What does this fold into?
Amino acid sequence: MAATHETRIARLKRLEFLVPRGRAASACPDATQLLATLGEAYAGKTPEARRRALQRDLEELVKEGRIEAVNPGGKPLRYRLVAPEPDEDQAVRAYDLQLMRDLVADALPQQRLDRLWQRLLTNAEGPRLDETRLRIVPDTLRLRPVALYQGVLEAVIEALAQPCALQVLYTNADDKHSDACLHPQALVQRGPIAYLFALKNDEEAPVRIYALHRMIRARALTRTPVRTAIGFDLDQAIASGQVDFGQGEMVNLELRVRRYLATVLTACPLAAGQRWVDEPPGSDFEMRVWARVPSTGQLLRWLLGAGDNVEVVAPPDLRRVVAVQAAKMAALYPDP
It folds into this structure.
């Protein structure tokens, strides 16, 4: 292969991944569409420079017989993967089918369908579904992502990928600026905001959370190896409520639910081990539900969002919080 630089090899693989197989010419992407998806992989300072670099990559993939122009001489040129020989195609399909079965077998017992969808969308090899055939749609209102300072996201990703330390100028909620050397552990996107889990300076603990939009400047310290936090586990941190700024204390939740929420909770439990029984005849609700869950801001927002379809029975502290918040909301809408 003519492209020997590791970055360009990876870029060519990503480009090849975006080009579909067996599509009609009108459904195949052109250079403009590919650049819109893959533009961050090209380091040119101007749109023209990035487009020229993309065009060189497309020409190389065509020369190697990995992709083809489906409308030679047309404007704009559109591209798709070169169809394999029949025997090769059959072997590839069999291999993809087995990989797909393995992915599903791994995801279903833990009910981690979110990871399965991401794997299917991003697989460079094996079974894959592009966004014309698989889309992940949120079940809540999506806010627009926060604006980040120039260069911050690139530096954070570089520090995580190396891995290495990260020098940042950070502003806190009181608008006070401070410099810090962070040791990144993981990155999480919660709603419209991205957060970095990191150790600060020479601290061995705790792993703190930093919102990326509060980083005014960030620079990956490629010569400073990252320090790994002992015992840090991203799944555990999320499950304990850290990303939601709660303490993550586990509580025994007891609810009475009705209407759409009764249907939802029988199909999609709040937690493993959830129990429920029908409410007695004459009750205003349909079901009583018990589940052990972390007490976080996310839980409170979910309960308030359910309106009069849910009543918190226990724990008493959470019931009081919901009652106070509901009263404050009602006070904003006096009866005309």
Notes: The longest strand covers residues 177-190. The two ends are 75 Å apart (CA to CA). The chain is about 35% helix and 25% strand. The mean pLDDT is 83.
